[in-house]
Write a structure and sequence with these properties.
The complex is a heterotetramer, with two copies of chain A (about 400 residues) and two copies of chain B (about 325 residues). Chain A has about 400 residues and is α/β, with parallel strands linked by helices. In chain A, about 40% of the residues lie in helices and about 10% in strands. Classes of the chains: A alpha/beta (about 400), B alpha/beta (about 325). The complex binds thiamine diphosphate (2 copies) and magnesium ion (MG) (2 copies).
């Protein structure tokens, strides 16, 4: 496998070193904006300082979240962050072709992921490792994609977690169709209803497919939660390049509710997503949620964010870290002690070590995989191609050349 | 055999009846597209289905092709078997990304865990005197995309069975229908609905002959057969093969025929550049290298956008152009 | 040219005759809705009964419309309706392959079309014969498309009227790009500013491209008026199949103004479009206008609307005819007398006769046209194809076969 | 000749410099796409352009390919000469309808009154160890669409001139760039910026030889040349032709070569079905019917979606597969 470095970086010495980023005034403003609290309409239940904000509308949706449950959410976030950092490091060590970090988006993903139930379905993009984890997908399975041994491997049905999707926004229509199917199957209308959550980014909102998803879901009353993680950036482009208005307001033009939630607040993400899912289960879907969060790392391991954003911006957002506020809340209110936090850290380290072990020992995929599962039923043309190629390969093996 | 088992059907009615049979046999089959419900489609191919199967199984969708195909993907994931109608082939392109990136690849992406039993019905081809985008032949684009299967029917019997077989298949299928022949009385044929149909993905010799082989598909099969009849009067015997499936190509019968005749004409309404007829020529020259007495010749639409319909009689390969090619081949 | 009848109709005797339309309750409701006045938010300056409604916001935009000007608008509408009916008839006589009637949409098209100025540009769909006329395009040129002798022929630059577009909605993005160009060229910002109007239907609003046009135009502050003629139907589908909300409200999600105007009121269409164009010229674009109107004829000459809608609906809309209300207003207020109306009718008949003459005598296009203008610069491959084909044709001519 | 007139450039830098030259020469040239501005594109091909030409000539667009191409059409109507960057070839499909229905057809539709001087730059091909949709070769799809021209560059000199020639052309051009070679030091070449470039739409013999002809384009030209070097050691002399333009194909030099060698290998990373290599085979077997001593053989990607990158070394035609085909051709 050739170096993925080639994606974006000239070879060393190929030209002048990348210049230091010189963000424009527009970027500075964008940065400052991004560090705001997301505006008046932001739903928040836990402040960055770890104080609980009460909401008559949303508190009922987290009435069951006692200290133990909150410790669970905390642990989830720490584990997926640790796994994320490990994967990032493994990419640097050449074990993964690329990694797409979720750093900073743990609350949005764990909160919304934990809001789903067994019969629900999630349609992710490519950054939802945290959601995958909440759906019971072993993160080892996620690694295969980024090690480039497969394009995806988990059992989507068992986990209620569709394959990753790399083409921006087009999974949103697939999710819409799935949710329509839930409705057609009579699974909508009461507390036992099923629903679907589809994930996409701020950049994706510009794609025609996302709009068509809005149109279809509205027209067919699909039980679908559009969960937009607005992490402020689409690679190098700030959200202002996609919209004049806060993204949650997009829903107003279609006639369904849109809401902005603090994407760094796991309680708010859980509550708001549960609320939205309830609406959908009862036939009042769809709902758009904009989770206002921040991509704390690069877009992917091939990206260099210093070219387009100020480090100040990151510093501001660090103050709103999704994990720290839960830790502060638990510590302050006696919901957890040092021992607990240490244990979680140890669990996370073990979790990461396990991933690492697995990754380093992952077997190379066999050449036949190229030809497998192109079709469900066979294709004589392709069968012939496979046979010809495999016997060509055998020729090398026989000649000792391979 | 009961009388109603054998029906004289146009191609359009045959597809309509085939759809009905599939919907009766499996309640996960749903039909979706623009105007397919109340109106029965602009060609009336889905006529009566919404009335009998309801609005939840025959969906008049919003007007957007990516939406039609993209939601069909999700419905397929949910276990439905969607049959999408694209109103005219020229309007399939807004849905191209969903076809290429999702429909064609999900089974591969998931190592077989997600099946894509979607049929995308596409009325195609020219000869109806229509305005722009209503007469094209884009099938080669789909034949080039791995993960899709592509079928083109030429007659009512194949239309009746083919649509049912396509719906039964667990693979995604682009199903091209010869729109100018939909309601042609000349193509009305007895369809024995109790027969055992030929397999979907096989080509077929539809007229035996021994001097030149002509391979065609969809609406061009009729042109080839007409040419064969005309050629016969001049004492030339054409063997006509209906490809039936465009991907994966079943060229066995073509190779066999060329080994006999030594000459091949590949016929299609589509532009020739990087097309299905190119593929046929490429494979035949390789497989039948020593049998060919003349190069494979192609009779196709020109490499231009589809012209204003007043000119389509010149654009579309007709009997004369086929015969001209036959003469060139024989005179090589 | 084979019969365009084949498009949609089985051959006679091929099966049972089309059943009488049996609209569902939903359709009946849709029909009733459609006959409403378009809701409270509808901007109307002239009622169906021909009474002038005053508007402090919009009256200034038609301050110059004295009786003479109004007679002009009346004449425009009568002429294009007459031409439309003539073309429809010519299609029935086999002179046109198909016709796309504008019947009922005269006010929307003449009003908006007359609002444009010389430097402005229009991007039509395929039904905007009335707009074409206001832009100075000879309707004879439009006939070529429907007689299938060409795909379009007028000088788009001279007329500020782009070619027709048949693929639903994708011209909206082209219009957006053009309007961005007007801005980049420094033509926006004052009274002399330029602007663009793009036309599309209710059905088109579902297309991804229309959404992307909204996104782009908003982000680039493009001087673009999105003029949606909501004629209640997209072939057989009522507007409810595209949206839960009135379409003008779609703009709310993007952060630019949306407005619903009585599309059968030429004064309101003129005033509202002028207002929207002024906004755009001054840099406050884009603007969405929903012209609430009705397709009084079939979708095209190959369509049979009795299959999907009630004739009652049409009868209701006839009461809101765009031409009659102007006639009533002019007659009642002494703005025109019988002589005028008779003269207009005579002009219209002459206009139609001229079209008819032209159409019946239109020359067949030469075969070379197939190959002309595929490229601006030549293509040797295509040149060879043309030479080969033309000499093949010559062969027939020589053999006397052709 | 001034020293700065001759620069040693990678392919990536050559395109960057070519873009700069075009933007300097004509202020109607604008660059648009995702991340092309501040970031200089994910491959840095537009690096520095926004800084020097401003935000109105180098547009960081919203994230939607149909929007990029659709607005470029309007800008072209307005008299601009847009150069669109598609971030990776696998993301061009949401823009396919605009390309097929507007970009390719507007000039024809308007009988020449509307020109479409649009360049759509597409990094293509595999070999970078990437995830899905980042390594494909969809060029055949565009070669099949009448009204488009398609170019694929293989080296820095053609990259530097080709992008400028493409921008100068009044026709819409899909400009395919070999992404895995963008920053390859091995491909760094002296580019004489004062030279007179070869015409854009001409193929070229890049290595003469006499036993077998190999025709390739884009990143495969390097593979063909490497194979020729290896073959030489075995005493086989390959003639390598760089197609350079994929539509309209300039096959004159290929015919000439095949008349000499009697053998042809067509090389491409793309799947073979209904592709450019099919077209080459189809035309060569017709034009060189009596010269061919073996059938035209094709060495291509397989007819599968692009596999996980750990397997791409098997998927991509390499030197060994070319040599294997050479042996088969010689042994026919
Ligand atoms: C259709 C398409 N175009 C371009 C890309 C390349 N690309 C990958 S991620 C990305 C930015 C996405 O931004 P956003 O939607 O905000 O999601 P985020 O990565 O921030 O989670 C782009 C342009 C793609 N994957 N698909
Ligand atoms: C992309 C595309 N899909 C389908 C069609 C076929 N078609 C032509 S007109 C039409 C309905 C359009 O409805 P609307 O946008 O409301 O415009 P109207 O015809 O009512 O003016 C359809 C489906 C098309 N031309 N383009
Ligand atoms: Mg983002
Ligand atoms: Mg309409």
């Amino acid at each position: 496998m050739s170096s993925p470095e080639q994606w974006t970086h000239p070879e060393p010495g190929a030209g002048p070193a990348a210049e230091a980023a010189q963000p424009s005034p527009e970027q500075v403003i964008a940065g400052l904006r991004a560090t705001s609290e997301g505006g008046e309409e932001l739903t928040q239940l836990l402040t960055p300082e770890g104080e609980r904000v009460h909401s008559s509308q949303f508190d009922p949706y987290i009435a069951d979240i006692d200290d133990e449950a909150l410790r669970g959410l905390y642990r989830d976030m720490v584990l997926v962050r640790r796994a994320d950092r490990e994967a990032n490091a493994m990419q640097r060590q050449g074990q993964l072709g690329i990694w797409v970090p979720l750093l900073g988006q743990e609350a949005a993903q764990i909160g919304s992921g934990r809001a789903m139930r067994k019969g629900d379905m999630a349609f992710p993009s490519y950054r939802e490792h945290g959601v995958a984890y909440t759906r019971g997908v072993d993160l080892k399975e996620v690694l295969g994609i980024f090690r480039c041994t497969d394009h995806s491997s988990w059992d989507y049905k068992e986990h209620g977690f569709h394959p990753y999707c790399i083409v921006i926004g087009n999974q949103v229509l697939n999710a819409t169709g799935y949710a329509m199917g839930q409705k057609f199957d009579g699974k909508v209308g009461d507390d036992n209803g099923e629903a679907t959550v589809t994930y996409f980014g701020d950049g994706a909102t510009s794609q025609g497919d996302v709009h068509e998803g809005f149109v279809w879901a509205a027209v067919y009353d699909a039980p679908l939660v559009f969960f937009c993680q607005n992490n402020q950036w689409a690679i190098s482009e700030p959200t202002e390049r996609q919209s004049r208005l806060p993204l949650y307001q997009r829903a107003r033009g279609y006639g369904f509710p849109g809401i902005r939630v603090d994407g760094n607040d796991v309680l708010a993400c859980l509550a708001v997503t549960r609320w939205a899912l309830e609406e959908c289960r009862h036939g009042n879907g769809p709902v758009l949620i904009e989770a206002f969060t921040y991509r704390m790392d690069a877009h992917t391991t091939t990206d260099d964010p210093t070219r387009y954003r100020l480090s100040d911006e990151l510093e501001e957002w660090k103050l709103k870290d999704p994990i720290e506020r839960v830790r502060a809340y638990l510590a302050r209110n006696g919901g957890a002690d040092h021992e607990f936090f240490d244990q979680v850290q140890a669990d996370a380290d073990a979790f990461a070590a396990d991933l690492r072990d697995y990754c380093f020992n992952m077997p190379e995929p066999p050449p036949e995989r190229i030809f497998s599962n192109v079709y469900a039923e066979n294709s004589p043309v392709l069968d012939a191609q496979r046979e010809e190629f495999l016997s060509y390969l055998d020729g090398f093996a026989a000649a000792g050349e391979h | 055999m009961a009388n109603e088992d054998i029906q004289k059907l146009t191609i359009g009615k045959a597809i309509n009846l085939g759809l009905r049979r599939s919907m009766e046999a499996n309640n996960r089959v749903i039909v979706m597209g623009e105007d397919v419900g109340k109106l029965g489609g602009v060609f009336r191919i889905t006529d009566g289905l919404q009335k009998d199967f309801g609005e939840q199984r025959v969906l008049d969708t919003p007007l957007a092709e990516s939406g039609i195909i993209g939601t069909a993907v999700g419905l397929a994931v949910r276990g439905f078997r969607p049959v999408c109608e694209i109103q005219f082939e020229g309007f399939i392109f807004p849905g191209f990304d969903q076809i290429v990136s999702q429909v064609a690849k999900l089974h591969y992406r998931t190592q077989g865990k997600v099946k894509m039993p979607i049929v995308i019905r596409v009325p195609f081809g020219g000869g109806i005197g229509a305005v722009e985008h209503h007469s094209e032949s884009p099938e080669s684009l789909f034949a080039h995309v791995a993960g899709l299967k592509v079928v083109a029917v030429s007659n009512a019997v194949d239309a009746y069975w083919g649509i049912q077989q396509a719906i039964d298949s667990d693979d995604p299928i682009l199903f091209f229908e010869p729109k100018r022949l939909y309601h042609s009385g000349a193509m009305r044929t007895e369809v024995d609905t109790t027969a055992t149909p030929d397999p979907l993905f096989k080509s077929r010799v539809v007229r035996p002959g021994d001097s030149v082989t002509v391979v065609a598909y969809g609406p061009s099969v009729k042109v080839a057969l007409d040419a064969a009849t005309a050629a016969e009067e001049e004492g030339k015997s054409l063997e006509v093969i209906d490809l039936r499936t465009l991907s994966p190509l079943d060229l066995g019968p073509v190779f066999e025929s060329v080994r006999k005749t030594g000459r091949l004409i590949a016929l299609s309404e589509a532009p020739s550049e990087s097309s299905l007829t190119s593929e046929i020529a490429a494979r035949v020259q390789q497989e039948c290298f020593y049998s060919l007495e003349a190069p494979v010749l192609r009779v196709t639409g020109f490499d231009t956008p589809y012209p204003p319909a007043k000119l389509e009689e010149h654009y579309l390969p007709d009997l004369d152009r086929v015969l001209h090619a036959v003469d060139r081949s024989l005179g090589w």
